[in-house]
Amino acid sequence: MSELESKLGPWVIKYRWIIILLSLILVFAAASGGRFLVFKADYRVFFSEDNPQLQAFDKIEKTYSRNDNVLFILTPKDGNVFSRETLKVVETVTEKAWQIPYSIRVDSISNFQHTYAEGDDLIVEDLISDAENLTDADLVRIKEVALSEPLLKQRLISPTSHVTSVSATISLPNIDQTKEVPEVISFARKMGDEIRALAPNVEVRISGMVPMNNAFAESAQGDMMNLVPLSFGVMFLMLLILLKSVSTTLGIILVIFLSIMTGMGLGGYIGFPLTGPSVSSMTIILTVAIANSVHVLTTFIHEMRSGKEKNTAIAEALRINLQPVFLASTTTMIGFLTMNFSEVPPFGHLGNFVAMGVVASFILSVTFLPALISLLPVRVKVVKGEEDKQMIALGDFVVKNQKKLMAVMGIIIVTLIIFLPKNQLNDIFVHYFDETIQFRQDSDYIDKNLTGLYVIDYSLESGEDSGISNPGYLKEVEAFANWYREQPETRHVNIYTEVIKRLNKNMHGDDERWKKIPDDRNLAAQYLLMYEMSLPYGLDLNNQIDINKSALRMTVSIQTISSNEIIELGDRAKKWLAENGKYIKVAEGTGPTMMFANIGQRNISSMLIATTLALILISGILIFAFRSFKTGMISMIPNLVPAAMGFGLWGLLVGEVGLALSVVTTMTLGIVVDDTVHFLSKYLRAKREHGYSAPDAVRYAFNHVGRALLTTSIVLVVGFIVLAQSHFKMNSDMGMLTSIVIAFALIADFFFLPPLLMKLEKKS
Amino acid sequence: MKGIILLSGLLAFTGVTYAETAEEKGLAIAVEADKRDTGWRDQATTMKMILRNSQGAESTREIRGKTLEVKGDGDKSLTIFDTPRDVKGTAFLSFTHALKSDEQWLYLPALKRVKRISSSNKSGPFMGSEFAYEDISSQEVEKYKYKYIKDDKINGRDTFVIEQYPQYKKSGYTRMVAWVDKEMYQPLKIEFYDRKKSLLKTLTQHDYKQYLNKYWRPGRLEMVNHQTGKSTTLLWQSYKFKNGFRKRDFDKNSLKRAR
Fold first, then answer.
1. Which pTM was predicted?
2. B252 touches chain A (CB under 8 A)
3. What residues form DSSP beta bridges with B205?
4. Hey, are the CB atoms on B110 and A522 less than 8 Å from each other?
5. A388 phi and psi, to 5 degrees?
6. Side-chain half-sphere of B241: how many Cα atoms within 13 Å?
7. Integer Cα distance of A713 and A679 in angstroms
8. Whether the predicted interface score ipTM is above 0.90
9. What pLDDT is stored for residue B10 in this prediction?
């Protein structure tokens, strides 16, 4: 290796033109994979195919129907839905909603299939038709029916009748989702605009599952449009300040740019989709890749300042940095690659994008960059005395106060770690989007004014064909629905028992006393048959009754609560079923809400494995590279402590750990190792090549790598702070905590690792 | 003038339908199909309906049907459900009309009563299947406007491809495309387009047999819903003609007697 290190510099300078040309050709070949990159507008991308909740939900959707929807929330400014004017708008929206691409069903208070008895006839008809010509008496009657109908109240009409909604069920063919979701959204938005123009007295909001899918894609696009240029700008300024050289700064920016193009392009060839997390890989590559270049160029500038000729300085910079930069890149790559263990595929994609970008940045930093620099004019003032005075002073300070530092750092670390358990795994997935996102605003509005956006879906299986007409089963289902209605979190329960009770009443001359489950199984089945024969196109019960009539789908809408509360509610329901269920054979709460509630827990378990594996691999590499078992083991302390401190601080300040944070440990591990690697490699070099004592080796390390560590850490912290500006919470939380961890890593490497090394040296 | 008469006479002679528009040709095909399927008077059938969801799970219903041909209006039909067991004996009487809502009654054995269904809805699913009642009720010429599109071949058979536009306001469809066999004048395939003009379902009709040396009837119908992935097979297990049914076999009172 040492031969390679010293030969690389002259070789690069000799073949610089070929290297530059070849690098550009290879990068552009890789980057052309970028044309395969697409934004994935589907929340399902967050779940791996073998996710049990996803599988349960898929089964429900295949048994009944898909229930992705678009909701139009209508708020008349006069606060009363039941006016001719507003009802006409409802009718119009209902009519138009059938035209939304891939819509298979539309539900509203106007096309609600109202049933009543008229002599011996059963009348089944739209609750509202020809709204313009309704009499005042009609309006009163309609309002009364709507507000006393359990299938409408708090689902499509608010109890105070100030808000109503029209729900279009969308069944995406999933052939090309990148087109399908935007197609639905642009149609729905256009519809919204038309309604606003048509009825200025009605506020229109749009929410639902399809808009949520779209929000995932749009927030990812937003991050790419805003954060990536912002990071470039910030980094450019910072490098300029830190390196005080325009040409080297431009060289680094170019390397970063090419690294991002390579990483993203290769990911495109493989077929990784762009999602919120994976888009942040651009900012992360940018941030992480800078470190490689900075290390090479800081040494280079350092050498030139001390009066060396440019090409000699380049050769020296490569000789000194090749090994640590290679090691740092490898460990960073491993850290990111182990994110493939995540239960959440986008984090795996993120890890792979970044890993490829880091490899590219390593290769470019030791070939393309020096070749380029050798061609660019670099002016550096020669400074007498090559020492970095501030860093030497810092080194002296650390050596002198090693015992105090050890104690103080020990106390800080332990104190922060005490707060570790204060972190609770919790997530509110609607809050993945911050308040600046329209979807979030409209969803909060629904939650406050109409119904719950969170939905738990059950398939209540009777275990026998036609079992849904069994009175025992029906009564149990009703009791279960009623139990759910009593839960404080519940906003609405959609269940077929309401239909059969109403039919029973209708068949007894609309006598309220008969509004109950029929006692005769055949009667219940025949009522259902009759009702089904009466329903118009698109309003059938196939979305809630399976084809064998053996199971019912129950849909519970709940208010926006945290993942823990959802799981807890699901467990309570399970307990109720276990205690009371005789006829309901199988019932598993599922749906996107349940899926997101459980994914955090599942992800943490998988990331623990990933972190352990990354730690073993990285430590192994360090032991091998430093040819010292002891040093390798010592390095684990500054590698792990920053994450523990970071989470401790998070526990103290925030206390809630969402899905995104469960990947931070693994991700930062690969990054913070870099500082340790650079520090230790200089420390060991001083001891082995120069025969320095431990305190002198510490001073040497500070002198030679302190500045670069400070620079790269500042760059990393700032880069991740830029990521923290994302409107997508997964990214902003991840950015925030990562920058905290990296800051702690620098502190640990400066003030904790050296005293530790010196102390252990004394012992042996 | 003479020349024109001569020319049109020549055209008529050679059978070239020069001035016929696509609409007229479509209508002509429908009229011919109707004409060829007139005069069978009544029929009795037994069928099996197999429902499938998108996972491939199946469910079966067994039904018997009696139909009385009505000239100048839709047919009268009586359907008796045999399975599932809990609806056994339920009987459904329907007077089909081309443009008005059908008149429908249902006899519920558990209630021992006949109920009239105020059904303006021919477009909903029949017994939870992918067939709407309007798909399987009697086909009257006036139900649609027509347009001839082209000639085509399906499974080696020559067909006319015609578009049909439902005239009934509450139909679930905006358009149907039918492949009508040139020999039998019966559809081999029909595509149904929904309100937003997207393909909703495809029906294919198989195993045609000729009865009374004149009337073609399919033995199997396959309906696939492209939007939900669900499908339904309709198997006609027997056709019996000349049963001597009369009008009074198709009224409210006959419903209760139907077994």
1. 0.84
2. no
3. B221
4. yes
5. -90, 100
6. 14
7. 13
8. no
9. 46
